[in-house]
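$ run holo --ligand "pyridoxal-5'-phosphate" --emit tokens
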Amino acid sequence: MAISPLMPVYPRCAFAPVRGEGAYLFDAAGNRWLDFASGIAVNALGHNHPHLTRAIQDQAATLMHVSNLYGSPQQMAVAERLVALTFADTVFFTNSGAEAVECAVKTARAYHYATGNPQRYKLISFSNAFHGRTMAGISATDQEKLRKGFEPLPDWFHVVQFNDLAAAEAAIDDNTAGFLVEPIQGEGGIRAGTQEFLQGLRKLADQHGLMLVFDEVQTGVARTGTLFAYEQYGITPDIMAVAKGIGGGFPVGACLATEKAATGMVVGTHGSTYGGNPLAMAAAGAVLDIVATPEFLANVREKSDRLRAALEQMIPNHDLFDSIRGMGLMLGLKLNADSRAFVAHCRDNFGLLTVSAGENVVRVFPPLNVEESHIREFVEKLSAAAAAFEVPKAA
Ligand SMILES: *Cc1c(COP(=O)(O)O)cnc(C)c1O
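-- output --
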């Protein structure tokens, strides 16, 4: 048999970590990597954080799973905290980002169905978006590499240029249910929505009775220096998908909504076998204990300033580097070369983990509790890696 026992949808990678400690990962031979990828914005507190690990251990030994057919004080407690911390009035828990987006899309459509406009079924989404790998998620983007082989896809989305408010307005018709947007595109290359664009979408949604759905799966949970990125735009969405950092490494997602937006989400309209089980809630609760404090958020912003300043200082010394983008500790280093090749070079030769994104951007996603010394080590090693990198020109 030629096929790998693991369905070969990811490229093979020789690097196989077996243990993590804080900002570091170790392989079986004890070699060490500085992890500024954080499992793609998932390990918000680094690896093996004592508070998170203890919360999961204790809950696992008490009660791991019960059906959502029963009451769940663990779920209610985390939902109440998220409601208190955000624009939202109600929360549905999922196991992943794609499922959180799925619930968000269903919530937007159910609102129009329940309020007498079932013809409003289509969401306007944006070029280069990433909303997960479900059929709805890949239908919501124009990224060829995500859609190829799975078309025809349903016409539930109308994709227009990101940051183009006029195009978004022109796309509104009788079938429009709302907008689905990442405030800062992650996979697409750390492209931030402008203030005018996101505030403009809010205004259009209000004028036309549409739902504004934010996908904060990557930007959420303190990654950008505020608990959620929408706070930095002076607006609130009606519905928001969250995942990645919220479990700190344990699979948890959530769909948050206002009471009005959740009008259609009544008994029987949605569900999940695992979503919000006590173990997942223990993880999410432990993460919130730590990240949802003014001190923690201020520290993310301070570390962001240091890291950004250090990277900016380094840029003129290397032809490889073009510019820095992003917010908080969701930073992107744009290269004048293939970012995948450079990410592999840093990993294989310099013990540094980062993640590639669109537009030849290297995602720099340290743990949110990153220390000064890690930032210094990162910048030194990155500079050495750049000096040793033979630039194969970008395609
Ligand atoms: C990662 C991501 C998703 C998908 O999350 P999964 O947990 O992989 O399903 C959706 N939206 C955004 C913005 C993401 O970054």
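-- notes --
Residues 17-48+297-388 form a domain with the Aspartate Aminotransferase, domain 1 fold (CATH 3.90.1150.10).
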